[in-house]
Amino acid sequence: MDLSRSQAGAARMAHVMAIPYPGRGHINPMMNFCKLLASTATDVVVTTKVTEEWLGFIGSEPKPDAVQFASIPNVIPSERDRAENFPMFIEAVMTKMEAPVEQLLDRLEPLVTTILADTYLFWAVRIGNKRKIQVGSFWTMSVLVFSVFHHFDLLAQNNHFPIDLAERGDELVDYIPGLPPTRLVDLPTFFEGKGRATLDRALECFSWMSKAQYIILTTFYKLEARAVDALKAELPLPIYTVGPLIPYMELKAKSSLSASPNDRPDYL
C-alpha cells in the first residue's frame, strides 16, 4: 500500500461523530440521517456513538460501510428501566456521558472533523467548542416544539408559566413567533409531572444550542415554514431542514421488490 497516498486520503476524509440522545425516538432519525449522508457522499465516514446497551439493540442493523458504531460504557440507567425514574435518567444523560464520549473522541481515527449531536446533549457543544470542532445541533421533534422551548421566556412574561392547566389550559398562546394560536394544554408537557421535573435541564440545552455552528431540523420546510423562518430571523447560525428521517433506504429496498412506480402515493 502507498502509505503517503493513504494518509492523504484520510486527510481529505470528513469524519462525523454522531451522538444521539439515548432513546429510540432520537436514535432512529439520527441513524437514518447518517445512512443517507454516508450513501450520498463518498468522502465522509460516520461514527455513531451509543452506549453498550444500545449497541446490543441496533448493532446488527444494516448500514453503509462508511457508517460504524463506537460504544461507551453503560453509565446511564438501562433503557428498560428509565421510565421508572425519568428525571434520574435525564440527570445521568446530562452529567455522566460527557467524559466517556470525550475519551472516545481521543481514540477515533481519522480525526473527527464534525460532531453531530442531539440538541438535548448540550455538553457535546461544549466538547466541540473546546476542541475547535464544528458542532451541528440535531433536533428530532417538530419545529413548533423547538420554537416553544426557544421562546420559553415569553410564557413567563405573559403569565402563562407556571399555571394550573385544569384551570387555564384553554387559554391561547398567540405571541410566540411562527407559532399559530395554540391552547396552553396543547403545548409540550412541561407544566406538570415528569416534564416539569426535567424542564430546567431542557432549557439548559437550549441555552447552549446557539453556541453550535448550525442546526438541523427534521421537517419539511413547507410544512413548518412560518416557524422555520421565524427561527432563521432570530438565530445567528445556519438552519437546515432535511425532511422527516424515516428509514428511506430500507423502505426503498422493500418497495423495489414488491411495488411498481404506479403504486406510490401522489404526495411522493
TrEMBL record:
<keyword id="KW-0808">Transferase</keyword>
<protein>
    <recommendedName>
        <fullName>UDP-glycosyltransferases domain-containing protein</fullName>
    </recommendedName>
</protein>
<comment type="similarity">
    <text>Belongs to the UDP-glycosyltransferase family.</text>
</comment>
<dbReference type="GO" id="GO:0035251">
    <property type="term" value="F:UDP-glucosyltransferase activity"/>
</dbReference>
<keyword id="KW-0328">Glycosyltransferase</keyword>
